[in-house]
Design goal:
With about 170 residues, this protein is of the alpha/beta class. It is about 30% helix and about 15% strand. The chain has a domain of about 120 residues: Response regulator (Rossmann fold), CATH 3.40.50.
Length: about 170
């Protein structure tokens, strides 16, 4: 069990609505660490191990936040992020990118991620980003009564080559 928990998890969590979070990573230890970090908080958690599974679960689970690794088998995180941003029904889903390759951060942001963290994960930074991305949302990702979610910044195209597909991001 981890000693660190996200700030939101310190509140008394009852049977009320929970923010839906989809964790997408092919490393079981990373998924378990993130799950342990969030499970006691106001979150409903689902997991996926690749981009294709993530897209299917987005349709059925309807997460407000996706924690998305870049390097995945099949459909990688960059392409999954681009797919999510192209679809009107998933454009407003918050995406926290995760990568072990700092050079991929601008590519993931260019694909539409709202924020990125690098591995090895600093759990305080992960919590801070999750809290920031979910602070003004309801469980279905809409603006809460207290205010609108932070505005999405427009995607910025970069000339950094995406190493998995050979395409530019």
């Amino acid at each position: 069990m981890l000693g660190i928990k996200c700030a939101k998890s310190e509140t008394n969590v009852g049977p009320g609505p929970r923010t839906r979070v989809l964790l997408v990573d092919d490393e079981p230890l990373v998924v378990q660490m993130l799950h342990d970090l969030l499970i006691d908080g106001p979150f409903a958690i689902e997991t996926a191990t690749d981009g294709y599974e993530a897209l299917v679960k987005v349709g059925t689970f309807r997460p407000a936040l996706i924690v998305l690794d870049v390097v995945l088998a099949g459909l990688d995180g960059i392409e999954a992020c681009r797919c999510l941003r192209r679809l009107p029904e998933t454009r407003e889903v918050r995406i926290l990118g995760v990568t072990g390759h700092p050079s991929m951060v601008p590519v993931l942001l260019g694909a539409g991620a709202d924020a990125c963290v690098t591995k090895p994960l600093d759990l305080d930074v992960v919590c801070r980003e999750i809290d920031r991305l979910t602070s003004a949302m309801t469980t279905d990702g809409r603006a809460s009564a207290g205010g609108a979610p932070a505005p999405r910044r427009p995607a910025v195209r970069t000339a950094v080559s995406h190493s998995l597909t050979g395409r530019e991001g």
